TrEMBL record:
InterPro entries: His_Pase_superF_clade-1, His_PPase_superfam, PG/BPGM_mutase_AS, Phosphogly_mut1. SUPFAM superfamilies: Phosphoglycerate mutase-like (SSF53254). This is 2,3-bisphosphoglycerate-dependent phosphoglycerate mutase. GO terms for molecular function: phosphoglycerate mutase activity. Keywords: Gluconeogenesis, Glycolysis, Isomerase. It holds the Pfam family His_Phos_1. It comes from Sinorhizobium garamanticum. It comes from the Bacteria.
Length: 211
């Protein structure tokens, strides 16, 4: 058995609350989002983990979530690497649009395909596969070697950048990933084998609360 990888999706953002496609836009957490991030941190504190390093994206909602988690586990000053490789999927021309307005305009099914499919990009934006094409190499070069050397690593990132990682870790098919939505602030604790496959996965919270 090697190290531990913890994935946590940022708490509710202002644009989650307003029901707007967000992508690379940079809204802050709402009060609820702050509470969700703190709750995720509390669950990790109760789990008893101490991290060696943290990774987050270049976006404020993930960075603040990361800091709330680190505060909760008593590691406020832990080294934290920020990289846009972990950013949310780029929503392209949909960024800033209301999700219900988009459903009214393009239809429920089309919008669901843009949001959850593996390889259909929203207009001018990234599909999940495109997102993975930048998340996976970064994971392989910058994150995985640390886990394999026995470190405990936190990644605080986004619904779709983390879905692209979970797809590989959990060996999900294109059909299975369509149904996966990650809850905000719910940590997923992976223990990896020396060959980088998953030895165990624990979800510290209610993933069915995803919205
Ligand atoms: O970028 C966004 O709008 C959200 O963070 C995630 O959106 P989704 O639920 O459509 O994947």
């Amino acid at each position: 058995m090697s190290g531990t990888l913890v994935l946590v999706r940022h708490g509710q953002s202002d644009w989650n609350l307003k029901n707007l496609f967000t992508g690379w836009r940079d809204p802050d957490l709402t009060e609820l989002g702050v509470e969700e991030a703190k709750a995720g941190g509390k669950a990790l504190a109760e789990y008893g983990i101490k991290f060696d390093i943290a990774f987050t994206s270049s976006l404020i909602r993930a960075q603040r979530t990361c800091q709330f988690v680190l505060d909760a586990v008593g590691q406020s000053s832990l080294e934290t690497i920020r990289d846009q490789a972990l950013n949310e999927r780029d929503y392209g021309d949909l960024s800033g649009l209301n999700k219900d307005d988009a459903r009214a305009k393009w239809g429920e099914e089309q919008v669901h395909i843009w949001r959850r499919s593996y390889d259909v990009p929203p207009p001018g934006g990234e599909s999940l596969r495109d997102t993975g094409a930048r998340v996976w190499p970064y994971y392989l070069t910058d994150i995985l070697p640390r886990v394999l050397s026995g470190q405990k690593v936190l990644i605080a990132a986004h619904g779709n950048s983390l879905r692209s990682l979970v797809m590989v870790l959990d060996k999900l098919t294109k059909e299975q990933i369509l149904k996966l939505n990650l809850a905000t602030g719910v940590p997923m604790v992976y223990k990896l084998n020396a060959d980088s496959t998953v030895a165990s996965k624990e979800v510290l919270g209610d993933m069915s609360a995803a919205h």
